[in-house]
Write a structure and sequence with these properties.
By secondary structure, the chain is α/β, with parallel strands linked by helices. It has 11 helices and 14 strands. The strands form 4 sheets. It has a 6-stranded parallel beta sheet, with helices on both faces. A 4-stranded parallel beta sheet has the order 6-7-8-11, with helices on one face. It has a two-stranded antiparallel sheet with strand order 2-3. Helix 1 (8-20) runs parallel beside helix 10 and helix 7 (165-175) packs across helix 8 (202-213). The radius of gyration is 19 Å and the shape is globular. The protein binds magnesium ion. Magnesium ion binds at residues 47, 49-51, 246-248, 269.
Length: 302
Amino acid sequence: MLFQPGSPELLLYREYADAMGQLPVPTTVPATSLEELADRYDGFLLDSYGVLNRAEEPIPHAAEGVEWLKSRGKKVRVLTNNAALSEEDNRNLLCSLGIPLAPGEVVCSGSLLERERAGLDIRGPVFYMGLQSGREYLRSAGLESTDRAEETRVVVLASSRGYRMRRIAEAQKILRQPGSLLVVLNPDAIAPRPNGVMARVSGITARSLARETGCRVALLGKPFGEIYSMALDRMQLHGSRVVALGDTLATDILGARHAGIDCALVLTGVTPPSRARAEAKSWGIWPSWFLPDLRPPAGSRG
Ligand SMILES: [Mg+2]
């Protein structure tokens, strides 16, 4: 297993998978190539970490793969739970690594705040936990923030960075009130940091807060369905014309399968080629395909 037995990250992802329900096991899961996928689909939803980049490092062939897809007229969107950064800052980071992305081609879970605000009945100021860049999602949702715990019953958790422990204690105080709500803009349990380190991130913080306080929780982002609806709306494509590429079974693949979108597990991230089938079997989460990397067909460069 890539996750330690009994670890909070394993338990969290298990909870997501169990809550969403069992998926059918396909009879075969073949290996594929970017060229084969481009023959079948019009739209590509690409995960960022583990598919395009590892922190500040580009993954080999990712930039040329994206460029080649676009040269074939494919619609490409990066689908990410990295709500620490605004969509534009996510895009700038990827562009700085050579991934060719135009404005609007990053779809981040943070933008679900605007989309889901009315349904969640969020009114008045919210208590924000995250980096400055992620405050963009509050602005686009038309929400003010407050640092005064007595002024709100809503905590928006955008990322695991940008605040100190004391802020978690203040969030607990808010979330112990009746009718309080925790909105999580990145439900991920772990994220890769430089030097191969895996850090526990906001999904784990959210799980602890919810358990300690008994508050209501809205989890927005992969693997849950809202981000897929938003991405398809923005691409103006039907789900049957789209394939999702990701490296994490319990987020990218679980989410795409439940959204009815075909998907490939990309083997350049957290799931190495030697472990892919065993991991899929152990999670009970199977992709439509295995994709070694984003390499375009030979001779397509230049
Ligand atoms: Mg990933």
